[in-house]
Amino acid sequence: MSMLDGEVIVCGQSAGPAVELVIYGDEFYARYETQTGYTVVYDTQLGRYSYAKLLNGAFISSGVHINKPAPLGIRRHLKENPEVRNQKFQRRYAELRPPESQRLSHEALTLGPEDGLLSGRRLTEGHVTGLTLLVNFDDVRTNISGEDVNEMLNGQDYQRNGNFCSAREYFELVSTGKLTYTNYVVGPLQLSKRRSHYINNLLVEEALDLARVALQAEGKSLSDFDSRGEGVIDALNILYAGRTQYSGNLWPHNSVTTLFRDGVKTHFYLLTSAGREPVDLSIGTFCHENGHLLCRFPDMYDYGNRDGDGEKSQGIGQFCLMGSGNHNDQGRIPSPVCGYLRDLVGWVDNTVWLNRVESATAKHADYSTVHKYPTNMINEYFIVENRSKMGLDSGLPDSGLAV
Q1: Which domain holds residue 58?
Q2: How confident is the model at residue 232 (pLDDT cuts 50, 70, 90)?
Q3: Which pTM value belongs to this model?
């Protein structure tokens, strides 16, 4: 998914100007604060973010929007009761996760039939062509063109707007040429409702039907995006106009929806923002969410269930695309996929067992090699990587060997 851990994000309001908030969480559960530390909630009656207070352990609006002084008695850094938080998390998790993933325990995710990967259709080798839709809302439009998106996703030697490479080049690099992932871009397409409507109403079906009409005009159909001939669209990506909305169904996410069209059906899809101007385009979140969608990579951070305290943890943090590394350098230089995950999907050709050699050289960006040191515990080993601050590691907070 797409975790934020204290990033300052511009958030829109229907009855006031956009505000900068500090966000902790992901699409399953998140907490919002002002930059002075007061927890806030979006008050739909006011159409604005308001100071939060607790009622029976859950956030409610104080009725005072954040452009006014905080009411007396409101404390900073409020948190919901862990039981309330877990109920909200589980409800949203059940909405977004495929049913088969929900049935697996944490141990089964690591040691079960997928050996640590998410269940579901996996596409990690060969040439895969996804379908990407650029959509405008009735009240929010983007100045980004379909060609701008095409270059970001498919370009060769792409370095616009500070991006290290295109999405295609990213997956070719970290898979050592095993996966070539391109996208056919359609749009901008015009949705019928205002942006706020789609916070609680998923826009996928409306966007797909608009795309189907556009594809027919170009002599194509949705069946062209089923590389295996299995009746399933390989990858459906939807980029919406404007800033990222960290709320409801517009929070960047991937999930499952089944829609039958042109003899094929949708399955996994990605929804994220494109931005307002071409300069806003960045590959990080697109690559992270397609890591889930295509490769079935799990998130490499704790959702808050591991210790039963409801508190998320950074996990591998900025050192992997599937931690929070997709946000490195504002998403323009996402961290590579870590060695553990590259190994699971078969992108590693050489395994160096460090307990069997006197010395070894860990080369930077040698994505086809993994260095392992096993312990005496069953199913436990350490992985050592050279994470010098260069290439895709340029956005890391530190440099050297990572274990």
Answers
A1: 4-96
A2: very high
A3: 0.82
